[in-house]
Amino acid sequence: MDTLVIGGSPDLRDAVIRRLHDEGRSSRTLGASSLVSCHGETVAEHGCPWQVQDPEGLVDQLEDIDQVIHLLSPPPPSLPPAVRLFNWFTRGTYALLVAAREAGVREFVVVSSLDIFRCHPDQYCISESWAPAPPTEDVPLGQYLAEETYRVFSRCNDMSVAVLRLGSVVLEEDVAGQTFNPLWIDARDVAVAVSRARAAPRHPFEEKMPPVRRKWRVFHLSLPVENPRFSATRATGLSLQFQPEHLFRTGAPADREGDA
Predict the structure, then answer these.
(1) What does the alpha-carbon distance between residue 4 and residue 65 come to, in Å, rounded to a whole number?
(2) Any alpha helices (H) in 104-202, and if so which ranges?
């Protein structure tokens, strides 16, 4: 069985696919536009376009798939705002989940954004148990609605969803010398977290949760900085055991104002 990787920026998508390959896991992509290579070997061909209005076509793409990694990346800027919000994030996610239910897929990892908390005051430290407060812009609002679509499906169906929320995905070497941003997160560290959310045994504390909460898990991925805007207690202490290797030590912490 394979893992299907959907969406994502090139850096993040490639890092996730390479991590799966290194762990001996085969993968396919949907919505990718390039080949992915690892140590000179092609490990994933570019996938078919994601036809969000064609759930029957999606069933074919889910053949021999037992896990889906959905990277909630922004849609092409050429699309109208209403299409970006409703077709790309909301209707597209719904069509994917209907097709997945038909194909028997039960495991999902969703990579979302901490931007869905932007309307909370800057001085708050936001934990993984907080309710989002998304702005009305199409991308963060759409990411929140996609999350909610997954949450409802996990409650009503035999599906397990792990949501990873993060800030700005970069590669450490690409931002060397720039002013430090505490919301940076290296794509390779995200790939490790995605892999653990996909495959790691549940922490005993998670296993004791009610069934509804075991099927819907939320983690924040952030750097270990002083007075963080976002708490990552679950990500560091439960099944992910998230400890980023790329800490951007060449930069100086930015002021809290504007971090979010």
Answers:
(1) 6
(2) 138-156, 187-199
